[in-house]
Amino acid sequence: MFVYLKISRNFACLNSTNTASASMLNISDVMPGQVWNSQDQCKAALGPTYTPVINNQLCEQLKCNKARLYNPVNTHPALDGTYCKPDKWCIQGVCVAWAGAIALPSTQSAAWSQWEEGSCKESCVNNSIAVKPWIRECEGENVELSCSGIGPSAIYDNCSATVTTAQKCIAANIVPIETFAISVCNESNILDSSVSKDPYLYINIDEALACKVHCKAANSATTYLDVHETFPDGTPCFITGDVQQFCQGGVCSALAVSDGGWTAWTVSVSCDGKCQDETMQTPKKVYTRSCTNPP
User: Distance between CA atoms of 105 and 168, rounded to whole angstroms?
Assistant: First the structure.
């Protein structure tokens, strides 16, 4: 399928009406969109840096985008079996419910991975602070749908007091926020001529947009385009009252590690008879739970 996506313009094998040869193929009942999700399809069609645009037209036309590109690229209708909405997938260009499907999805939910501690890092933007992320990922084949559970996919700690010399930014490389934005807009202009080289900053203007780099449109000085690039983590972005907020994974918010609470108890070990320990003669169940935020 990946090969077909890349070279289909040069071959017409799928137009063949030779059913005799087609009947000899061993075709799996698994929908192709279950084997290659929307992320895989974008990478196969355009390259490893492209990601899918999840919208209501996904089944009809899968659009893919990448950092510093304003206009997403059209690829092809999403493959049958691609998740489009909760409890729905694409069939012949239409987002339909799973109910009554011939072959149900191989997985209907995704789950959070364990939290992983990142390294402390100082950005090279004026007045920024060093931050350390804790990150978890949404895992499973159903990556288009949101993971269930409490809390975000990443939280950040201020680690300025413990940042090492190796993690510090060299003084000569530290630039004003606007200079960073200008460099992004210059590169965006090379990739997409509809984007000008002039940035527009929402820092301390609009909290929701403050950490996203915007460039003026090439044909309008009052139209500002989101080029899908963010300011570095730790960049000061907005002040609410007397609380300074910082960019964290492209979102402007205060640095605060909150306790997300415990997950529900689940059975991790269940022995109806003997367990592996031969001395255990009675049934046994072990219940576990985990904290939804890092320790």
Answer: 47
Cα–Cα–Cα angle for 203, 209, 215, rounded to 5 degrees = 80
Confidence tier at 37 by pLDDT (50, 70, 90) = confident
All residues at 6 or more sequence positions from 24 whose CB lies less than 8 Å from its CB, including other chains: none
End-to-end CA distance of the chain: 43
Is this prediction's pTM over 0.70? Answer: no
Paired tokens of 199: 């940035």
* Residue type for position 176: P
Residue 247: partners with Cβ closer than 8 Å, 6 or more residues away: 210, 211, 230, 231, 232, 233, 234, 235, 236, 237
Check residue 143 and give its pLDDT.
Answer: 47
Q: Are 195 and 240 in contact (CB under 8 A)?
A: no
Q: Which pair of structure tokens corresponds to residue 64? A: 């893919």
